[in-house]
Design a protein that fits this description.
globular, three-stranded parallel sheet, 5 helices, VWFA domain-containing protein
Amino acid sequence: MSGLEMDTISGFNTFIEKQRHLEGETIVTTVLFDNKYEILWNGIEASKVRLTGKDYFVRGTTALLDAVGKTILDVGYRLSNASDEERPSKVIFVITTDGMENASKEFTYEKVKELITHQSEKYNWKFIFLGANIDAAKEANNIGIIEDNAFNFEASKTGVESMYSIVCSQISEMRKR
């Protein structure tokens, strides 16, 4: 989200802080992606998560499918090796992008849709898709996310604020159910 780095960082940190104060434990996995895939945090208590300009920066293309596919597999693997006590009662997977898929090499729409469908049906994972500069509902549908969980946002300061407000509200509701 070129030009919106500080808005994104601030919005992310505010979102995490709000989630920390909800009932229950908040564990965070955060992945940055473009032409590279970078795990910032993998199953870390939210109180230890703070995004900075050293962590978040904009580089280039959008390997959306590779990022989603790899992250589903990474989180699924981590959870499959966790004890019953360590395994969360809910997994809410949020995808945020400011552009169309244009660089994935490992995963296809079909494969990502299979993964999302499997995790949703077998393990009751919830997926939220937020997109700027794209038709978020169409893109979410292409990868198996229901339209009710797809949201467009504007790639602007106000749009990023709105996006974090939407995701915070959606996750807060999902956590209550």
